[in-house]
Amino acid sequence: AVAPLVGASPALIPVLLGERWSDSSDALALAAVAFLLSLPVAVVASAYIYAHGHVRAVLGSALAEAAIWIALALALLPSLGVTAAGLAAIPARLTGAVMLGRLLSSLSGAKIVRPIVPATFAGLVGCAAGWATSTHLGTDLPSVVAGTAAGLLTYVVLVWATDRSLLRQALEMIQFSLQAARSPARGPTALNVPVGSSGPRQP
Question: What CA–CA distances, in Å, run from 56 to 49, 60, 95, 98?
């Protein structure tokens, strides 16, 4: 979702809010990139660390993120304007992800960097491709569509080339979600999921 959002943002903000808000598209794109870089680690690590009772560690990472974001945003605000908020989010979110990731590795012994590299790389390239497309075409609805399509297509192609299992997992999750949304009944039997299973059956 991040690559299409960033790809469309140079045209999306002016189309939705008007040209006077166009400068905020940079802040939106940078904030989205910050989440792209940090979220794969932060979400998994937070859940695992919570489960092991290290609540203070999660709170500490959140406070560190907030402190870094506020300090950098205020420092950059005079020169960059609203863009400072998005730019400051990148080191702030990365700091929190590193703090949680190191604790997760020490608790579980898991190697968490290498598995997320293909998807993260594909996301960054997709963001760049979509951004370049919508910036080149201008600030109108066709540019929004083209930037979104370019970002999404680039991401999918790169993930397919580097790690096809990610796409298969994504399709399985989408299929499971659609099945759940269509089913009027509740419970595991409505979704053809065995009791005690956490997701769709693997082939």
Answer: 10, 6, 16, 16
Place of tokens 């990472």: 61
Reported as a single tens digit per residue, the pLDDT across 130-154 is 888 888 888 888 888 988 898 889 8
d(CA 126, CA 115): 18
SS3 at position 44:
helix
Residue 120, number of CB atoms within 10 A of its CB: 18
Angle at 166 (CA atoms; ends 161, 170), nearest 5 degrees = 125
Which conformational region is residue 128 in: left (phi greater than 0), alpha (psi within -120 to 50 degrees), or beta?
Answer: alpha
Distance of alpha carbon 32 from alpha carbon 41, whole angstroms: 15
Q: What is the pLDDT of residue 29?
A: 86
Q: How many beta carbons lie within 10 A of that of residue 134, not counting itself?
A: 29
The angle, 0 to 180 degrees and rounded to 10, between the axes of the packed helices 83-108 and 24-51 is 20
Mean pLDDT lowest among 29-33, 102-106, 176-180, 187-191: 187-191
Please provide the DSSP assignment of 64-124 as one string.
HHHHHHHHHHHHHHHHHTTHHHHHHHHHHHHHHHHHHHHHHHHHH----SGGGHHHHHHHH
**Up-side HSE of residue 129: CA atoms within 13 Å toward CB?**
21
For 186, phi then psi, to 5°, come to -120, 155
Is the full-model pTM beyond 0.85? Answer: no
Cα 46 off chain centre by = 15
